[in-house]
Specification:
CATH topology: Arginase, Chain A
CATH architecture: 3-Layer(aba) Sandwich
CATH superfamily: Ureohydrolase domain
Strand content: 15-25%
Number of helices: 10
Distance between the termini: 40 Å
CATH class: Alpha Beta
Largest sheet: 8 strands, parallel
Length: about 300
């Protein structure tokens, strides 16, 4: 497979500094080499640069760095569309506001191909606030509401070239939802599997049902993998930790199932904050998870000696 790596050092949507170093951490952790070893044709397009920020005023005074975030969204939507021509783009984040650009770019590509876009959201949070409903003002909490065409963005965010049907979005690993998001999600019809559902049923039946829907619709599948989908005991490098996340094997199983499906057309790796990491362990885990999605099997993992 042709794989295009694009760095997106977006920091403006998060409340804590550090995510802008994410692309460099992934490269240092050997992401290109890991994919090349699996036989993929890897090109690194470097880092996307935001467009010049314009003065934008919104009545919700809690919003933080709105002009800068919009500048990123515009640039990333174009970059995602361009990088998806005949290849699978991998977006190296950067906070989760970057998905407000990458997903619309992929939705435009899917529309051009006459296929629906589906989104698998692997996250502790639903990120379903609008510009009106957010009280924190951190715009990494808004991308899903935006790219599914929810009210509350007006003409402030860029016009969407193609809207993702909320029924085509499945969220897995959710465990922190604000009241305003609960109501909006219920009305929109997004599929949500929280950690209790995973505890009770396991990853396979929940994920397989979604995979089957994508396959039946001949859809393209975009995966958005947030570090906080994982339990903080194995992935500490994130500023939005929520206890009780996916385990090492649960996360790898999800990636292995996605590989087996053959449906994934693009992926975001988001919210990695290297400043909070422990000798690169989270960056290396995220690279290993991507490798599972791209064909590395459980049988391929070497035995390592315990070092005291």
């Amino acid at each position: 497979m042709r794989v295009n790596l694009l760095g997106a050092g977006v920091q403006d949507g998060a409340g804590r500094k550090g995510c802008e170093m994410g692309p460099s951490a992934y490269r240092t952790a050997g992401i290109a080499e890991a994919l090349a070893e699996l036989g993929h044709d890897v090109s690194d397009f470097g880092d996307v640069r935001p467009r010049p920020a314009r003065v934008i005023i919104h009545r919700n005074r809690a919003l933080k760095r709105l002009p800068e975030t919009i500048a990123w969204i515009e640039a990333l939507a174009e970059a995602a569309y361009a990088a998806s021509e005949g290849a699978m783009p991998v977006f190296l984040g950067g906070d989760h506001s970057l998905s407000a650009g990458t997903v619309p770019g992929m939705a435009r590509r899917a529309q051009e191909l006459g296929r629906p876009l589906f989104v698998l959201w692997l996250d502790a949070h639903t990120d379903f606030h609008t510009l009106e409903s957010t009280t924190s003002g951190n715009l990494h909490g808004t991308p899903v509401a935006y790219f599914t065409g929810q009210a509350g963005f007006g003409s402030t965010f860029p016009a969407l070239p193609a809207v993702v049907d909320p029924a085509n979005v499945a969220m897995l690993g959710i465990r922190s939802v604000d009241p305003a998001e609960r109501t909006a999600l219920r009305e929109a019809g997004v599929t949500i599997h929280d950690m209790r559902a995973i505890d009770e049923q396991g990853i396979p039946p929940l994920l397989q049902r979604f995979i089957d829907r994508v396959k039946a619709a001949n859809g393209l599948l975009h995966v958005s993998l947030d570090v906080d989908f994982l339990d903080p005991s194995i992935a500490p490098a994130v500023g939005t930790t929520v206890p009780g996340g996916a385990t090492f094997r649960e996360a790898h199983l999800a990636m292995e199932m996605l590989h087996d499906s053959g449906l994934v057309s693009s992926i975001d790796l988001v919210e990695l904050n290297p400043f909070l990491d422990e000798r690169g362990r989270t960056a290396m885990l995220m690279v290993d998870l991507l490798s599972s999605l791209m064909g590395k099997s459980v049988m391929d993992r070497p035995t390592t000696a315990w070092a005291s």
